[in-house]
Amino acid sequence: MTGVPVPYRVTRVREETADTVSLTLAPAGPAGLARFWPGQFAMVYAFGVGEIPVSVSRIHRHQLVHTVRSVGAVSAALCALRPGDRVGLRGPFGTGWELVRAAGQGLAAGQDLLVVAGGIGLAPLRPVVLAALAEPRRYGRLNLLVGARTADDLVYADQIRAWSTVHGPLHCAVTVDRPTPAWRGHVGVVTTLLNSAAFDPRHTTACVCGPEVMIRATARDLLHRGLPAHRIRVSLERNVRCATGHCGHCQLGGVLLCRDGPVVGWDRACSLTSVREL
Amino acid sequence: MSSSPATAVLDRNGLDALVEALRAEGRTVVGPTVRDGAVVLDELTAAGQLPFGWGSEVEAGRYRLVPRADGAAFAHTAGPQSWKAFLHPQREKLWSADRAADGRVSFAAERPVRPSYAFLGVRPCDLRAIAVQDNVLTGGYYRDDGYRRRREGAFLIAAECTEPGATCFCVSMGSGPAAEAGFDLALTEIVDDAGHRFLVRVGSAAGEAVLSRVPRRVADEETASTARNAVDAARERMGRSMPPVDLRTLLGGTLEADRWDDVAARCLTCGNCTMVCPTCFCTTTEDVSDLTGDHAERWQRWDSCFDLDFSYLHGGPVRASARSRYRQWLTHKLSTWYDQFGSSGCVGCGRCITWCPVGIDITEEAAALHDELADRLRRQDAEETQR
Ligand code: SF4
Ligand code: SF4
C-alpha cells in the first residue's frame, strides 16, 4: 500500500552543513518499504507537520539515508529529528538513474560515467557513485564533478575528500562559486571542471542533478562536446503531494515527474526546462 | 416483440418506479434538482424532484433558469456541479497517525465507506468525464482506492441531450450528444403529442435487472426514431465549437503565443473553471493534528492550478504569472493530458465558460491561438519565399 506511510526509526543524524542533515532510517516494524533504486525518492512524513519528497542518498540493506535541507516547515521538522524519533515513509517512487543492473546490460553498460552535481544535488547522485565504485568493471572511467556555493555548503565533505585523494578508479573534482581564504581548490561553476574529466563523449552516460540553471548549463556543454541528449540523464524537481500520479502538482508539460521522473533524459527535459514558468 | 428487448419506453410513472426500484436496492439516488436558482445535483427520494418544467439559459459568464411549458425533466444544460462531487469529493480523509507515549508511531488507512450510488440523468459529456477520471485515478500503476470504491458501486443512468446550451461543444470533443457507452441505462426524453415519455436503452446486466422491475412497454418504432431524430437535431444545434484542428498539436506549439498575455489580462485566477470542470482532478493534502499533538490526520482536498501555492517550490511558485497559470490549465486540458493519460482532458460540457466570472471562453481562446499560429506560419512562409 503506497497511500499510507510505513513507520521508520531515525538511527543516526549527521550534520552535513549548517542547514542540511542526513537521516539514517530503519523500519520501525517488521516490514519496511520495497527496495529503492538510486535516483528514486520517498515521501517523508514529519509527524503532524507534513510530507515532502526526498531522494535516497544511500541505500544500505533495509536502511535508507535521506539528506534534507531545511527550507520549509516540513524539512525544518525533519532536520530537528534525533535518533530514536519516528517518521513515516512512502515509496519507492519515480524513475532511477541508468545504472548497470547486471553486467553488460543497460544504457550505461561499459560506458564512461560522468556524475555532475550542484549543491545538495549530490544527494541523489551519491548512490550512483557508490554503486559504480562497488562494481567499477561494469563501467568505463568514473568521474564525479561537484560544485557548491562555498566550501561550507559541501555535503558529504569527508567522503569527497577521501574520493579525491585516494587514487582509485574515480576521478573526483570539486569547485566552489565563492572561495574562502582557506580554499585551495577550483573556483567557478561546475562546468569548468569538465575539461579535467576523463571521458569519451561518444561513450559516456552523464548523471546530472542540481539547480535547474546548473542542469541546463551542464547539459548544453555536454551536448556541445558530443554527448547524445538521451545519454544525459537529469533529475528534476517540482512540488509533489501524492507521488502516485493523482494530485497533478508535479506536472512539467506532459510529464508527471513523480511517475515519469524525477530522472529524465535531456532529449525530453530540454524543451520542458526552456519554457519559462512551464 | 419486434424491437430489441433491451429497449423500452417509460412514462412518468415508470420514472417514479425506476427511482423507487433503485432505492429499494439500497442505492442513494442522485440527480438534478432545482435549488437556489440553479439545477444542482443532490439525493432524490422521488423522481418528482427532478427539474420538471425547467430549462436553463447560459452564456459566457451567465446562467439562469427558465420555465418550460412542456414540463421536460432533462431539458437543462450542465449545472455548476458535476458527478465528481460524489465520486471524487471535495474533501476526504486519507489516513490517521497516532504516537504512543514511548514515541512509536502507527498509521491507519481510512477505510472509505462503499456507497451505492445511482446517478440519474448523467449527460453524455459527463459520462465521458467520468471515464476520463476513471482513467486518471484508477487506470495507472497506482489506484485511488477511495475513488475506486465509490465508482465501482455506482449505477449510471444517462440522459441524452436534446436541448444543448449556448456554451456546449460536446460534438467538437466527440463526447455527445448521444450516449454511446459507459452507462447502465440510457434515457432519451420525448415530449410530444403522443405524451411525455422516455426511451430506455440497456447498457449492462445490472441495468437490465433494474429495468425488469419497472413497469414499461416495449419500444415502438415511432418512439425510437423520434428519440434518434431529437438527438441528431441536437448535434446540429451546438452553441459552440472548437476550431477544427488537432488541438493537442495546436496547444503544444503555442506555448510562447502572445494570446496568453491577452487572456491573462482578463483572467482573475479565481479557479472557478477548475472547480466546475468535471475532469479536473487535482488535489492537495492537509496535515492536521489535535491539541495533544499525538493524533494526526491526512486530508485530501480539491486544489486548483490557478492557486499560487499549487506550484510552490523552495520559496516561491514556479508559475507566478496569470499567463503561466491559465496556460497550464488550457494546455493540460487540450494537449498534455494526452501525454499523461492518453485522452483529451476536455469533454465539451461548457461549464468553465458558463461559470467564469469574466466570461473567458475555452473555445474562443483555442480559436485565437489557432489564428495566431496560422498567422505566424503565413508570415514565416512569406519571409522564406522572399529570400
Ligand atoms: S474544460 Fe470546460 S468545457 Fe471542457 S470539460 Fe472542463 S469545464 Fe467542460
Ligand atoms: S478562466 Fe475564468 S474561471 Fe478560470 S480562473 Fe480565469 S477568471 Fe476564473
UniProtKB/TrEMBL annotation, chain A:
CDD domains: sulfite_reductase_like. It holds the Pfam family NAD_binding_1. [2Fe-2S] cluster binds at residues 242, 247, 250, 258. Transmembrane segments: none annotated. GO terms for biological process: pyrimidine nucleotide biosynthetic process. Its cofactor is [2Fe-2S] cluster. It comes from the Bacteria. GO terms for molecular function: 2 iron, 2 sulfur cluster binding; flavin adenine dinucleotide binding; metal ion binding; oxidoreductase activity. Residues 3-99 form the FAD-binding FR-type domain. Binds 1 [2Fe-2S] cluster per subunit. This is Oxidoreductase.
Automatic annotation (TrEMBL), chain B:
InterPro entries: 4Fe4S_Fe-S-bd, 4Fe4S_Fe_S_CS, Helical_ferredxn. Keywords: Iron, Iron-sulfur, Metal-binding. Pfam families: Fer4_22. SUPFAM superfamilies: alpha-helical ferredoxin (SSF46548). Residues 256-287, 337-365 form the 4Fe-4S ferredoxin-type domain. GO terms for molecular function: iron-sulfur cluster binding; metal ion binding. This is 4Fe-4S ferredoxin. It comes from Streptomyces minutiscleroticus.
